[in-house]
Prior knowledge:
The structure holds 2 protein chains of 2 kinds. By secondary structure, chain A is mostly beta strands.
Amino acid sequence: xxxxxxxxxxxxxxxxxxxxxxxxxxxxxxxxxxxxxxxxxxxxxxxxxxxxxxxxxxxxxxxxxxxxxxxxxxxxxxxxxxxxxxxxxxxxxxxxxxxxxxxxxxxxxxxx
Amino acid sequence: xxxxxxxxxxxxxxxxxxxxxxxxxxxxxxxxxxxxxxxxxxxxxxxxxxxxxxxxxxxxxxxxxxxxxxxxxxxxxxxxxxxxxxxxxxxxxxxxxxxxxxxxxxxxxxxxxxx
Lengths: 112, 115
């Protein structure tokens, strides 16, 4: 089964600073990759998904962007962080033949 | 648009008690229903998946049921243990025409099992 790595595990950044969160996947090829954000008291919100290298779709307009430079690498970025970007960011993967997504351990981002 | 409600938001029970977590949804035209567990500060772990044609799934001390007509699912935990303490989320994965999966999540029920 798939193993998903995310780093860093925790990040504290000042408002206006850039952001780069990385997600890598092992144990599968050509997966669908997802970025979610989980804010306190709110459900998981899908931010981006990718069905292949260089293919990124955004679910909601926001201050963030995503890239997929390699088959099993997914990066979440921002040029200038906002306070509202604070949250718990989860990377997930799955394939069209699978009925479930597999989640990484997450990155806790605090923007001050 | 699917809307998911989980009640209660938090639950505290003594060890050994049987308990039920509830999930209600508005759109009965679902594909699958899934229950996840999330430990504090961690990712999600899939517990049970019920296909739309099924009514329940069991794994060890866990039993999940699905009633599409009433828009409800329950997660039953037998003989609860302190290690069951976590947040439990119900979710509705739906395959999209673009080959990806879109999942609607509930906010979750935070369970604490007291030794």
